[in-house]
Amino acid sequence: MERRSAVGREDAHTSGLYTKRPLAIVRGDGALLYDEDGREYIDCVGGQGSANLGHGNAAVADAIAEQARTLASCTELFYNDRRAELYDVLASLLPASLDRMFLCNSGTEAVEGALKFARAATKRAGVVATMRGFHGKTMGALSATWGPEYRDVFGPLVPGFSHVPFNRPEALGAAITTETAVFIVELVQGEGGVRPATREFVAEAARVCRERGALLVFDEVQTGFCRTGTMFALEQFDVVPDILCVAKSIAGGVPMGAIAFSRAVGDLPKRSHSSTFGGNPLACAAAIAAIGEMRRLELAACARDRGAQLLDGLRAIRSDKVREVRGLGLLAGIELKENAGPTLKALQAEGVLALGAGPTVVRYLPPLVISAAQIDRVLVATAKALA
Ligand SMILES: *Cc1c(COP(=O)(O)O)cnc(C)c1O
Fold first, then answer.
1. Could you name the CATH architecture of 58-296?
2. Relative to the CA of 141, which ligand 1 atom is closest?
3. Fewer CB within 10 Å, N side or C side of the chain?
């Protein structure tokens, strides 16, 4: 019997918003993916940051199945045992001052809530974000996102937003004023080209925010959950923000986001913000299991070791096409002197699926369970693709 590819079947109905590769992925195992013809790939896309734990984790699968049979839906009209347990788990990982949380369903929603909370807490409207920053694509988050290709067709955006150059501490003093509610920043710009923040920039941001009475938000949607070599990247910057946004890998691939915030946010008006699916027991059970597995498998150490192996290996590749190699932990990027498209295609032909980050950067975001031998295969494929 003839089987029609998912490619044609999707094309009949897809929104057309995504630039899709003509490849149907149907199964995953650890850091490997398989297409509908059974061909194997090393996954350096990692669900764009949602698959830190690797594909097909049995503990997460069991937790989801068990919770689905027990109770999948329970809105925040009520209390719930799984939600209470997840709060405890997150609180044990986070800086002590970030002891209140709001659970949601995605990264953009975590940012959206953080911006709303900051406006409510400070009674100010101003939001300062960074050039090349990425914070999501709903209206509020999009207003903080830099990319004109995402913004221009949807204007007018939310008023009160401005952007400062990333990693220029001297620009912060003029941009963050006594009208500023919040400064939001990624500790490594992911979509914007894999650019780690400097310690000076982050420290100065914290100092200026404190001086002007603005709140500081770290968007760790991509850098959170062991990606950069620590549970959260903030541990490497010695700065605790007023609000932390996380999502992507929090629940082992199940959609979930969270906002953790300090007492600086104060009391939020009852019912001013909410989410039907936020904190549902199914996602909470998945998150508890996923975080348990991250600890058991010591994924932070894996990200440090395999990240060093990847970055050292990429830096050792001699190619006229390479401008710079950047990264932190197992979040790595090669900035090319040319468009990244042909290199991504060549990598795919070599059995490695990688990701762009802006037009000229090849980004590697593999599951953190990737083995040393698999990293070696990625390096061989990259050297070939850049030859
Ligand atoms: C992916 C991402 C978002 C948006 O997350 P979604 O779940 O796609 O809405 C926000 N901020 C950062 C830093 C991201 O990498």
1. 3-Layer(aba) Sandwich (3.40)
2. 10
3. N
